[in-house]
Each structure stands twice: as structure tokens, then as C-alpha cells.
Amino acid sequence: MSRPKLRHIAFVVRDAAKIADFYREQLRMEVFHVDPDGSHFLTDGYINLALIQHQLDSETPVGFNHFGFAVADVAAVSDRMVAAGVPRPVTRPTDRPFAEYRAIDPEGNWFDLSEHGFLPPDKEE
């Protein structure tokens, strides 16, 4: 069995374009997607960084939001999680192309699970 790989980190930010420019210019990350709401997605070629544009009408606070694992078999991972006493991961909305499932750890931290990975097809590992 292959080990899940941490491949995605997400923050809610007040100015996604400005923060994306910082990571692009200072750390040479590449923007590979921009959502209609202004959220920016960058990559170093291995891990992607989601800069989720804060919405004034949202209850989601600015700061760390979630992380994500690329896994070989979501069903097997889900079964192990349920056996460990946490809820079964749920399907993400179809407008979120970078992960198929949302899960929660015993402390209530959100994380995503994806069989296809978190990068666009032309950048997949």
C-alpha cells in the first residue's frame, strides 16, 4: 500500500492576489488556477497552496483553513477512518476540482482526500 502524501495547504486570506504575488515573486511559486471569486492556487511543483479569498459575508475566519492528502484509494482510507471512530469523509462540491472528499480528524481539523491529486492534469506528479 502506498503512503498518503501531503500535497495541499489552504489559507483564507484578505487579498488573495496580493498574497499570491508575494509567493510567486519571493518563493518562485507558479499560479496554476484562479477561481472566479479571486482565490488563487499556486504550486512549487510538489505541494499546492490555496489562497482562498475571504468573503465579507462568510463565517470562515482568515487564517489556516485545511490541508489535503493524495491517496491511492479513498474508500480504503475512509474505512480505516470510520474504524478509528471519526466520520466517513464526504464528497466535496463538484465546483471544487482539486479534491474529491472532505474529512475531519478527531480534533475537528478539516482535510481533503484526493485520488487524482491536487495539481491540474498537466502538472500531476
Question: What fraction, in percent, of the residue positions are helical?
Answer: 10-25%
Give the spatial strand order of the biggest sheet: 2-3-4-1-5-8-7-6
Average pLDDT across residues? 89
Radius of gyration, CA atoms, in whole angstroms: 15 Å
Oligomeric state of the chains present here = single chain
CATH class: Alpha Beta
Number of helices: 2
Total domain units: 1
CATH topology: 2,3-Dihydroxybiphenyl 1,2-Dioxygenase, domain 1
**Span between N and C termini?**
18 Å
Structural class: alpha+beta
The total count of strands amounts to 8
Superfamily (CATH H level) name = 2,3-Dihydroxybiphenyl 1,2-Dioxygenase, domain 1
Low-confidence segments: none
Task: Please state roughly what percent of the residues sit in beta strands, choosing from under 5%, 5-15%, 15-25%, 25-35%, 35-45% or over 45%.
Answer: 25-35%
CATH architecture classification name: Roll
Describe the 3D structure:
With 125 residues, the chain is an alpha+beta fold. The chain has one domain (5-55, 62-123): 2,3-Dihydroxybiphenyl 1,2-Dioxygenase, domain 1. It is 18% helix and 34% strand. The chain has an 8-stranded mixed beta sheet, covered by helices on one side. A hairpin with a 4-residue loop joins strand 3 (40-43) and strand 4 (48-53). The longest helix has 12 residues, at 16-27. The two termini are 18 Å apart.
Topology of this structure?
Layout: E1 5-13, H1 16-27, E2 30-34, E3 40-43, E4 48-53, E5 63-70, H2 74-83, E6 90-91, E7 101-104, E8 110-114
Parallel strand pairs: 1-4, 5-8
Antiparallel strand pairs: 1-5, 2-3, 3-4, 6-7, 7-8
Pfam families: Glyoxalase (PF00903)
Domain VOC: 5-116
Organism: Kibdelosporangium aridum
